[in-house]
Amino acid sequence: MHKLIYLLLPGFIRQILFVAGYVSLLGPSQAIMIKKNADKNRTELSDTHYFYILIYETALRLSLFLIMIFLVEYSMDDDYFSLFRLDLFFFLLLGAGLMHQIFYYIGVVILKTPFGMKLYRLGRNLSYAILPAILTAVGALIIQNYNQIEPFSGLFVVKASGLVYLIFSLIGTIEAFVQTGSAISIGDIDTISSH
Fold this sequence. Notes:
Elements: H1 2-8, H2 11-24, H3 31-41, H4 50-75, H5 78-83, H6 86-111, H7 114-128, H8 130-146, H9 156-178
């Protein structure tokens, strides 16, 4: 289902989603493609283990993510950034992205089995579930602001976003164990060798 939706999107939207996912760490790693190209072209990353390539790539992506956070904070009023706790949302995105990277390495690079792909899908889907939860929290904050209620007062924001996260996590867990084949955009996993 993910592949069908992805393929129906226009090319420029797919590119925007790819860049946003890559910078936020929510998109899949490109370590397989990086290693494949390095080995083919005999660059400085030739014969480097996937783990180290994943570490280098994650460090680069994390740097881009931190630059994005800085630019958002710089372009906003500090009071709004603090009032709406945008640092918390960025921290949640970062945690979800790092979880995605860990499941990618374990499921796709280490295990390299159908169960490993299911494990990767599970981690990916649990990571992706944070996005609708954050959007729900933003919606709840807008409602509170419209009603002149102090942001995050009471448990409305936490309960609404938590419920949405649980629902999407449940859907993602079911999808992870029902879906077969390789996940989209992770690279040619058949090229992974022992190094």
